[in-house]
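We modelled the chain as a single entity of 176 amino acids. Its sequence is:
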Amino acid sequence: MEDTADTIRNRVDESGLTTIDLDDLIARKPIVSFDLADCLENGLILREKPFRQTLKNLKPEDWSEKIVVLHCSNDAIVPEWAWMLATSQLTAHGAAVGIGRAEDVKQALLIEAIQQLPQESFRDARIVIKGCSSGTNAESLAAAIRHLQPVALSIFYGEPCSTVPVYKRPKNPAKN
């Protein structure tokens, strides 16, 4: 017979908590920049025909499985269709595309991934959203709450061994 006093138990595993590390949702793809300033004529004007040719010359292998951050590093006014054309072409080559700063694009992609989490997998779950995720910010954490709260029994923030309660479903929702 085994001596239970010497048995190591993982009470966190036994607690029934479901841990979500938002860092796991962040695409682990390389981030590359596509500066539309490089496509401007005289640093000021974006002409459609040469721009289309530039996009046509893109090699799929250079963009596939990457996060592409579209931006324009100078003060030129870039027509709206240029962003659409570039996004269309890069997406066709297998890139995830966002416009702006790299940090903002990563956050937008993280929020998109949060919104795609299957809610039914978390129905009546006691969820811990990990606190040491490096790629999160207030907006992505709020998105996680908005997405999971309708189905979760409770939501905590932090580490399973030390959490801050964020939400607990009322026992009798009709009274609230």
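As a brief sanity check on the tokenised model: The chain has a mean pLDDT of 89. The radius of gyration is 23 Å.
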